[in-house]
Amino acid sequence: TVQIDTSRYTNLALERQEDDVWIVTLNRPSKRNALDVDTIEELVDFFSTAPRAGVRAVVLAGSGDHFCAGLDLIEHHDEDRSPADFMHVCLRWHEAFNKMEYGGVPIIAALQGAVVGGGLELASAAHVRVMDKTAYFALPEGQRGLFTGGGATIRVTDLVGKARMIDMMLTGRVYQGQEAIDVGLAQYFTEGSSFDMALEVARKAAQNLPLSNFAICSAVSHMQNMSALDAAYAESVVAGVVNTQPDARARLAAFADKSAARVRPND
Ligand code: 1HE
């Protein structure tokens, strides 16, 4: 396996837990964790390496009161970019977010405060989103004279549907609280700390076999891009590999000898 050299990261704070759950924290709270070029490169770096480094799950968090304010608008203003320059910036965002979505390592986003613009694009590249009562979601690009460039047209549309996505962009509509859950922006809402709950979700996921999680956190996304015919074929191939993995034998044996937990309704 590959090692992750945590000292190489400055805009991200990295922390490995004992169960190989990693905590990845956007670490520019004074800039509301706005995504500058360097932060995106660190995300590319970490999420390119994580699948080969034994990372079992990731909690993606933002330090301070806000998860992420999106594109670093000051850097963008100062750089006065050409169309080609900004296209290349966006391609690096896609590199980072595709590594997240297709990398096969479960990523649980812990959300608080602003989850806006590119911050929502980042959160939507995670596999599960946990929000607290301060979290709010919006796409202010329209108001800023901009357009989404980090995958919102694909991933936010997947979460909320086309009509809500276009409304969010046209009007800057803000979703928060239970409504944000109801429209699909997040899967868990807590009155307490979204970080604590995200860590709980990540730990639960990390108890699965890594190859199962690899399939869950890459195959579903890949199959969405395929025809139904090809997706069914690909699913068969993935299931062939995953469902016969030697490490699964013990779990199947435990079911057979009735020592494994049964699936029961919640209390
Ligand atoms: C920033 C950014 C940023 C804050 N880029 N520096 N995103 C937006 O349109 C969101 C813009 N930000 C905000 O609406 C607010 O800053 C927040 C709601 C996130 C936070 O409000 P608040 O009152 O806590 O903070 P603040 O006073 O507005 O900002 C504190 C500092 O963070 C300040 O810097 P300072 O040096 O003057 O102290 C802000 O400039 C800085 N800051 N947000 C740079 N976004 C690939 S295309 C993606 C397209 C987009 O993402 S468009 C961006 C959408």
Automatic annotation (TrEMBL):
Highest taxon of source: Bacteria
Glycoprotein keyword on record: no
Ribosomal protein keyword on record: no
An example Gene Ontology biological process: fatty acid beta-oxidation
Any coiled-coil regions, as ranges: none
GO MF annotations in UniProt: lyase activity
PROSITE patterns listed in its UniProt record: ENOYL_COA_HYDRATASE (PS00166)
Alphabetized UniProt keyword annotations: Lyase
InterPro entries xrefs: ClpP/crotonase-like_dom_sf (IPR029045), Enoyl-CoA_hyd/isom_CS (IPR018376), Enoyl-CoA_hydra/iso (IPR001753), Enoyl-CoA_hydra_C (IPR014748)
PANTHER family in alphabetical order: ENOYL-COA HYDRATASE, MITOCHONDRIAL (PTHR11941:SF54), ENOYL-COA HYDRATASE-RELATED (PTHR11941)
Family per record: Belongs to the enoyl-CoA hydratase/isomerase family.
NCBIfam families found in the cross-reference section: PRK08150.1
Name assigned to this protein: Crotonase/enoyl-CoA hydratase family protein
Organism whose genome encodes this protein: Sulfitobacter sediminilitoris
